[in-house]
Write a structure and sequence with these properties.
about 750 residues, alpha+beta, seven-stranded mixed beta sheet, five-stranded mixed beta barrel, 35 strands, about 20% helix, about 30% strand
């Protein structure tokens, strides 16, 4: 597996043993002492031997890179895995991605043969496993891999999911050399399951209590998706197979899909909602899914692994709850949205597609596919009565004891565990809080209430959901208490690079006040440097850049393009000649906005009030929102729920007298001015620059409540007239205008 370290034993030129090198300690560097060659991992100190081997490992599509590094290249916030000797001195250090610990909201018991346990088992990979073509087959693409015969979630699935974001795509035809798709052999089988890999893993965990191994000749249950249902019925003998009814035309004649000279005519077989039972496994042509249950309206809640599009328009997806019905308004879709958004927030940040049409998911052609139903007398039992329950009742029962705690921290340190921690009602969990060198704990809030500047906090006997948030502050001077050698403040420089090259040093580097730092940008073979942006502004296609006299946090990002390719702005509808070209690139680089698809920005598209809230909320680091009163027109499972709650709570967006926030309404130019003015007040930004609006012919059209804000926005250069004589205060703000406004505001 690429990106992992192995301990290999050789007898001459013969490999006699291969073991995964897990190291002795792994975690985040909270301090690095150059003078004494000490590192701190979550405040535990280790001395690095002079002859220690230090490596940087960068896993990426097309091949991981391994680079030997020096101690001086280590920095706070790096994640590392170390090997120590008997004196606890570091002999090997690997700077690499390390996934957060994860516990699924719902999981099964290996080997427990009940219908409920089958569904609970199938729920375990939901929301944390990406789709990989051929995933969880072996590398020869013939049988099961070790991952599909692992009891519990394979660590490689968790690593792969957490190391990617909404830009992940299972197949990149534009750059196949850097794609996770099949390239002559099943290279990335370990990253996540395809549809039959997921079903095969679920069945293996139901039927077994110990992991299997390819080396021991175990075969598992991964096979052609089209024939999986038939195999379970006829080869395994676990239940029955139903081939459905022959599909007919409205006049009663048999429907025939016309073939051509290479493909024979085909009859289709189809199913009705009443044909499906809880726990059924449905094989169609090239896909397979599990029926969790039926809804009152006949729609189906299903579990499967499929490459659904992300919010960035990339075909990634993976194991998820979906709804199959006649329309997106069916009950199954509503249930899928509710549970995916509530219990799988990291997934929901990337993927919102949950609807599949009934006609496309309940028919097939040929004689290999069909619908498998469990034998509930001889194979599985059903003591909980799931066979007679509707989908909403099944989901409620599966998740009834699930509780979670959301943990977050600003820059300056770490809280562990971080993010969402899933618990069973009655469990306890302790959080440790560690500042980086040069920082200290300023405050810790639990459910929005301060508990002081504590370095640990324990939730005992958890019966409700909670939040815990940490605020770190920069030291004013003196030793930070974390082992820092110096008393001067330090600042973070965050460096990143797109596909096709690298930047060195990468990640976050901390530098002393007034120091300088040089970065080197290198394109891979076949690529060229397309652009380098510093704090969101382009500095050109340079191969190095130096920050001088650093007195604040900085960012630098390098992007690359294939050699010989025409220079592209990144979006097909954004030209270099457009007045908003630079702003769009800056807005994307700064993480303020994204395209509506992989190659479209939609510059003339309107911006809603929810979109503005989301931009500002993201700018603030998406702080935890809890305890706020519900907003009547902001559903709890909406993608903008937290942003709108935050915006209203902070007074950034006031809403209407009747309590509505009207999140989907296009934001007008004067509304946008008021929102930005309110945000600027909260951030103590300069509000002194104003403009006389009398020079605009439509100045009288500016609403009374927006005059001061519009005067400030125009005077500050954030908003300009639609023409030399018109402000168009009631006009809808476009995406291009917002890109210009927000980048100007946050670069000032």
């Amino acid at each position: 597996m690429e990106g992992y370290v192995y301990d290999i034993t050789l007898d001459g030129t013969e490999v006699t043993s291969v073991k995964l090198e897990e190291g002795d300690v792994a975690g985040v560097l909270t301090n690095v002492k150059a003078t004494s060659k000490q590192i701190y991992i979550d405040n535990e100190s280790f001395t690095v031997n002079d002859d220690a081997e230090l490596y940087d490992i960068d896993a990426q599509a097309g091949g991981a890179t391994v680079t030997k590094i020096t101690f001086d290249e280590l920095k706070v916030d790096d994640t590392v895995r170390i090997v120590v000797d008997s004196d606890d001195h570091v002999t090997k250090l690997f700077r690499m991605f390390i996934a957060e610990d994860y516990t699924a909201p719902v999981s099964g018991v290996p080997g427990k043969l009940t219908l409920k346990n089958f569904l609970a088992t199938a729920m375990e990979p939901v929301g944390t496993s990406l789709y990989v073509y051929g995933g969880s087959w072996d590398w020869q693409d013939a049988n099961s891999s070790n991952q599909s015969m692992t009891i519990g979630l394979p660590q490689s699935w968790l690593d792969f999911f957490q190391s990617h974001n909404a830009d992940y795509t299972y197949r990149d035809d534009k750059d196949p050399a850097h794609s996770y798709y099949w390239r002559g052999y099943n290279e990335y089988y370990y990253g996540g399951p395809d549809c039959s890999g997921y079903v095969g893993w679920s069945v293996y965990n139901l039927m077994n209590t110990e992991s299997g191994s390819v080396a021991d000749g175990d075969k598992g249950y991964v096979m052609s998706a089209t024939s999986q249902a038939k195999n379970f019925a006829e080869e395994q003998g676990w239940g029955t197979i139903d081939y459905g009814e022959v599909k007919k035309n409205p006049d009663g004649s048999i429907f025939v899909e016309q073939g051509d000279e290479d493909t024979p005519n085909k009859c289709h077989r189809t199913f009705q909602p009443e044909d499906f039972k809880t726990g059924d496994i449905f094989s169609m042509n090239g896909h397979v899914w599990i029926c969790l249950g039926k809804c009152e309206d006949g729609s189906l809640v299903i579990l499967h692994s499929t490459p659904s599009d992300s919010i960035n328009g990339e075909g990634g997806g993976g194991v998820q709850i979906n709804g199959v019905g006649e329309s997106e308004n069916c009950q199954a879709v509503k249930l899928a949205e509710e549970y995916m958004s509530k219990y799988y927030p990291q997934w929901w940040e990337r993927y919102h597609e949950v609807y599949k049409s009934f006609s496309s998911y309940t028919q097939y052609s040929g004689d290999a596919a069909g619908k498998f139903s469990w034998d509930l007398n001889n194979t599985l039992s059903d003591p909980e009565g799931y066979a007679d329950m509707k989908a909403d009742a099944i989901l409620a029962d599966l998740f009834k004891d699930v509780r979670y705690i959301d943990a977050s921290a600003n820059n300056g340190g770490v809280i562990s565990p971080e993010g969402r921690t899933n618990l069973t009602s009655g469990d306890s969990v302790t959080y440790s809080i560690t500042p980086f060198s040069g920082y200290h704990i300023s405050d810790v809030t639990v459910d929005g209430q301060s508990v002081g500047a504590v370095d640990s906090y324990t939730f005992d006997n958890v019966t409700d959901n909670h939040t815990i948030a940490v605020t770190f502050a920069r030291d004013s001077g003196g030793n930070s208490g974390g082992g820092s050698d110096d008393s001067d403040p330090t600042y973070a420089i965050r460096a990143s690079a797109g596909n096709g090259g690298s930047i060195s040093p990468k990640g976050t580097v901390r530098v002393e006040k007034g120091d300088s730092k040089t970065y080197t940008i290198t394109a891979d073979k076949g690529y060229a440097i397309a652009d380098v942006t510093v704090n969101g502004k382009s500095v050109g296609a340079v191969d190095s850049y130096t920050f001088k006299n650093v007195t604040s946090d900085q960012t630098i990002r390098a992007t690359f393009a294939l050699e010989g390719a025409a220079e592209q702005p990144g979006f097909s509808d954004v030209s270099k000649n457009d007045w908003f070209y630079d702003a769009v690139q800056d807005a994307v680089d700064m993480g303020l906005m994204a395209g509506v698809s992989a190659d479209r920005f939609d510059p003339k598209g309107t911006v809603t009030r929810a979109m503005v809230a989301q931009i500002l909320y993201a700018r603030e680091g998406k702080p935890t929102v809890s305890g706020a009163a519900a907003i009547s027109d902001v559903p709890a499972n909406a993608w903008f729920h937290n942003a709108m709650q935050w915006a209203k709570g902070q007074g950034v967006i006031a809403g209407y007298p009747d309590g509505r926030m009207d999140p989907n309404a296009p934001v007008t130019r004067e509304q946008l001015a008021v929102i930005l003015h309110s945000y600027a007040q909260k951030k103590d930004m300069d509000l002194s620059k104003t403009a006389d609006l009398a020079g605009y012919a439509d100045a009288a059209d500016v609403s009374v409540w927006a005059k001061d804000a519009m005067s400030w926005a125009v005077g500050s250069g954030l908003i300009s007239g639609r023409s030399a004589s018109t402000l168009a205060p009631a006009g809808s703000a476009t995406r291009a205008e917002c890109a210009v406004i927000f980048t100007q505001m946050f670069q000032k």
